[in-house]
Amino acid sequence: MTFEPLSRRRLLTRAGALGLLATIGTLVTPRLVLAAWNKAAFESKTLPETYKLMGAEGATESGDVQILASDIAENGAVVPVQAVSKLPDTTQISFLVEKNPNMLAALFDIGPDMVPDVTTRIKMGQTSNVVVLVKAGGKYFTATKEIKVTLGGCGG
Amino acid sequence: MNRRDFLQLLAAAGASGMALPTDIARAEKAADRLYDAPAFGNVSLLHITDCHAQLKPIWFREPSVNLGVGAMKGRAPHVVGKAFLAEFGIAADTPEAHALTCLDFERFAPIYGKVGGFAHLATLVKRIRATRPGALLLDGGDTWQGSGTALWTKGQDMVDAAKLLGIDIMTLHWECTYGQDRVKEVAEGDFAGHIEIVAQNIKTADFGDPVFKPYTMRDVNGVKVAVVGQAFPYTPIANPRWMVADWTFGIQEENMQKTVDDARAEGAKVVIVISHNGMDVDLKMASRVSGIDAILGGHTHDGMPKPTIVSNPGGKTLVTNAGSNGKFLGVLDLDVKDGKVSDFRYRLLPVFANLLTADADMDVLITKVRAPYEAKLAEKLAVSEGLLYRRGNFNGSFDQVIVDALIAEKDAEIAFSPGFRWGTTVLPGEAITMENVLDQTAITYPTTTLTNMTGAQIKEVLEDVCDNLFNADPYYQQGGDMVRVGGMSYVCDPTATIGKRIDDMRLGGEPIEAGKTYKVAGWAPVSEAARDAGGEPIWDLVARHLRSQKTVKPPHLDLPTLRNMDGNPGAL
Questions:
Q1: Which one of B119, B400, B465, B516 is CB 3.0 to 4.6 Å from B483, fit for a cystine?
Q2: Does B418 lie at the interface with A, CB-CB under 8 angstroms?
Q3: Which residues of A touch B418 (CB under 8 A)?
């Protein structure tokens, strides 16, 4: 409806058409590649084990960590989730889904010049708590929200 | 029956000992009293919601079961019958009591007559507007769906009727089941310059850009009034997602707060939300979002004669719900002084068709749009010996007719029918017409299905839907009623948690086994695969079954045995 997003969309479409996105991609990728891939954490099958492998066993809940997501998923296969950290010196933001076979769904390393605000889409097989785990100043903090995955079709 | 006949009947009823006036003059006075609504303040908002495309007057029985659990127990809207009358201070055996509750419905319906109808509603709107210059008419949605003519014209009959009625601003739910392209076509075509669609919680699925304006600012008698839209948050879940493939919904509480803040920053002295959240969700939202003067709600079809006043960090918010099927007009009068709301009056006016003459222009429109379909709609399929209705947390008698038809026609053991809250009522002794069947079934994904399901899967479905209804946190509720079940019995504990509410499922007295397979009939599948597979529409199946029956005995309702609900004021 407003003009601004339309022009942004047009810009992105054109950028994509011209191959500009690929160029931007190469600028960003090296830092992601350089970050160590915590294979064991991504493959672990219990929450305590995942925390342990991430060195996050002492994580505490924090009001400065926010998780933004729909209460009921529109599509369990692609659930948009956003995490915002207001903690100083935030260096890492992860998403964990308690009832997924592998809990750790995504991990973002946050550089010093980045805004600690990330959005991704995760896959959920069933209703579950989703935990945002933030590393800030070398310590771990969490925020939790239950996201419901339902069969649907019976409202109204 | 004309207005004079009706008043004579009222008087006669009074003479026969009912609590009604005993002469015509007094009956007429009683009728006028219903609509004597003196103006108040300087900003008025008229509100309709969930009319479900009912252009003609109809019968509509309010629920006898509307259970609240946890903090919602016994609180509006979870009161029925006498508890409802007590909660709102309404005298029994009055027109208001008949409009708002199911008490003695069969006795009073023939006396007070049909309710709603756009021609009668139009007369009431004009009457109220005459004393309230500048009043805005707001529509909470579920306007384009619910009748045969709406389905066959892709909502065009209702689009035209809404414009003629003079609706200023609306939000959405079932409108979306004609597909996102149809909604945009109407918004940018028919509605341009007439009706604005607002929805702060509909965004594009890719970038999260707004699809509609989150709010619109109107000047009402020199007061800046912002009207924010809250569409049904769970449209892509409760209805087929593929119909709104590029849109995402959700409650989006943070964005609601931002929208209200934006409207205030733009100078709004009054902020109104037209909401399709459902009342429990509205009550929770009102307690957490600051700066809203009133949430005019719908979706859960709760006809609430008084608003609930909810406290939040920013002050107080009124929460209303204006019923369904064109039965009511909500009137909120605000006195805005020194840049803020200082006082209010609220009325929920029942639309008694016999007390309001049909508006001529609207009547012409309705006659015209129905003309090509009248013969089909009027077909008498069978005579009903009992009262047929839908509304209520568990099976209504019309639902039972539908699940019985599914079991018979599909040769199934069990049948499911969605817990929709729309659907009109048929009185005992009346013919069930094709129009009545379409009032219960007219949707854009009507195919019937027959599926082999294990006992475990059946339980999973019941648990899932039951959680949508009774989750202790309203934000996890979807606002429909429990799935209607035919053929089987079960025990339900609404106070339990998901996975533990449904118990003792039985088929023909025998326990349903988790690993055993059962033939289950249903309709209204939401998946794309089901759409592509096709199948007979539910109205054709039910009509065929009814034609073969000639008369329908009062159905035996397959109701669950309820646990921990003794004394709950949400049940008779």
A1: B465
A2: yes
A3: 153-154, 156
